[in-house]
Amino acid sequence: xxxxxxxxxxxxxxxxxxxxxxxxxxxxxxxxxxxxxxxxxxxxxxxxxxxxxxxxxxxxxxxxxxxxxxxxxxxxxxxxxxxxxxxxxxxxxxxxxxxxxxxxxxxxxxxxxxxxxxxxxxxxxxxxxxxxxxxxxxxxxxxxxxxxxxxxxxxxxxxxxxxxxx
Amino acid sequence: xxxxxxxxxxxxxxxxxxxxxxxxxxxxxxxxxxxxxxxxxxxxxxxxxxxxxxxxxxxxxxxxxxxxxxxxxxxxxxxxxxxxxxxxxxxxxxxxxxxxxxxxxxxxxxxxxxxxxxxxxxxxxxxxxxxxxxxxxxxxxxxxxxxxxxxxxxxxxxxxxxxxxxxxxxxxxxxxxxxxxxxxxxxxxxxxxxxxxxxxxxxxxxxxxxxxxxxxxxxxxxxxxxxxxxxxxxxxxxxxxxxxxxxxxxxxxxxxxxxxxxxxxxxxxxxxxxxxxxxxxxxxxxxxxxxxxxxxxxxxxxxxxxxxxxxxxxxxxxxxxxxxxxxxxxxxxxxxxxxxxxxxxxxxxxxxxxxxxxxxxxxxxxxxxxxxxxxxxxx
Lengths: 166, 379
Description:
The complex is a heterodimer.
Chain A: H1 2-16, E1 41-43, E2 48-50, E3 57-59, H2 69-75, E4 81-85, E5 97-102, H3 111-115, E6 121-123, E7 138-139, H4 141-144, E8 156-159, E9 162-165
Antiparallel strand pairs in A: 1-2, 3-6, 4-5, 5-7, 8-9
Chain B: E1 19-24, E2 35-41, E3 44-51, H1 59-63, H2 71-75, H3 83-98, H4 104-132, H5 137-157, E4 166-167, E5 170-171, H6 179-202, H7 205-211, H8 219-225, H9 229-234, H10 241-244, H11 265-289, E6 309-318, E7 321-330, E8 337-341, H12 343-348, H13 351-355, H14 363-369, H15 374-378
Antiparallel strand pairs in B: 1-2, 2-3, 4-5, 6-7, 7-8
C-alpha cells in the first residue's frame, strides 16, 4: 500500500515539476525552423552530397543540358519529372528541354539531384508547397529557376529549464 | 453465399449462448491497420486469430522492377519511422552482391543514423502504448521528445521521416559542420528526459498493476515460437544481433543487451525503453570513435549489376527485432527476387498464445507490447 502511494506521488511530482519548464513547441506559421545549409546538393566530381533540407528543387538554366538523367532517375521512384520544351535558347541545351516537376508525386528522395552530372539541379529549403489545385503543384522550369526566400528563425536550444525553440 | 467462400471472421459463426465473436480492426484505432478476431466468453478471451494483410503493398514484387538504387525510396516505406534500419540489411546485401567496400567513416555515420532511428521509432511506439493504456502524459512526452532526434536526422539527411540516406557504398552525404557537438548536446538531454519516464510511467503503480503478469510468454515458448527483438529479450533470452552477429562497426562498440526474465507485458514494454538508453550510449561512443574526416560514399557505376547468379542474406537488429533481407541476383540491373523477413510478423505469432484466457481489457496492453508494426508485417 505504501508502495502504491509513493509511486503515485512520485508520478504526480514528476508531472508538477513540468509547470516550471519552458514551452517546447513551435508556433509554426509565425516561427519557422532553422536548417543547415541551403538545401541538399550533390557534387558529381566526388560523388558525395552536401547536407541540407530536401525541399523544393532549384534548376539552373545556364547549366541544364536537357540530358534527361533526372527524369530517368525518377522513373522507378515517383515519375514526377517530365521533360518539357522551354522558350529560352541556351547554348548547352540544343533540344531546349528542361525538367518540370510535379510535387503531387515527388517523394523528396533527392535521387534526381544525385543523377545530375552538370550541377544544374539542387534542392532548396522551401517546404511550403501547398496549393488549392493539382495544377498548382506542377512547377515549370521557369518557376524552378526562382530562388526561394525561406524564413528561418528558431532552432532547438537546451537550457536549464528544458529544451525550447528559441 | 455459403461460409466456405467468405474470408475468416466474416463467416457466420454457429450460434452459441456464451461465445461471441468480435472483430477488432482493421480500422479500429486500438489495433493499427490489422484485424484481430477474438472470441470472448463474457469478459475473457477464449480464442484469438490475428488477420494481417490489410495494408499489403507488394514491396517485394515492386523491388523486382526497379534497379538497386531506385529501390531505396520505396523499401523504406514499410516503417517510415525506422527508415534507416529497414534499409540497412538491403544496403548491406547489395554491397555484398556488388563487392563494394565501405569506408570507415560511412560505417560510423550509418551506426549513428541507425541508433537515432531506433529511438525515433521506439518513442513513437511508446506514445501509442501510453495512449492505449489511457496514460495521456505518456503520449505527449514521447511525441514531443522525438522532435530532438528528428531534428538531428533532419540535419543529417534533409528529411524528417523518410530519409533515403543509406545507399550501397555508404551514405548519401557527410554530416553537416559541427554536427557532433549538437548531436551530443541533444542526445544527452534526450537521455535525461527519458530517464524521467521511469517516475511517470514505468514505476507508476497503475501501469504496473495493468501490465504485470498479463500475457506471460515463457522462455521456452519464446524460443519455440521464434519471436525476436524486445519480445525475445523480455522472456529472458539474451539475443541481440548487434552483439551476436555484429555488422558494420558494432563489434568495435561496447553494446550491452538488456534482458528481463518475467516475459509479461511490463517486461516487453520496458525493454525498448532500456534499449533507448543503450542507443544513447552507442551514439556517444560512435561520435567519439568516428574518424574525423574522410569520404562517406564510394562512387558506383551507373546502374550497378550483380555478378552472375548470386544470392545474399543479411540481417540487422531493428527497433522491432531481427530484420533480414534476402536478395537473389541474376546478373541484371534489378534484383531477381527480394525477400524481407521482418520482426513484426514473427512477433505477431505469439499473440494467440498470449491473449488466451486474458480479459478483453488487457488486449491493448498485450498487443502493443509485442512491438508490432502492421505495415511492416504486411510489407
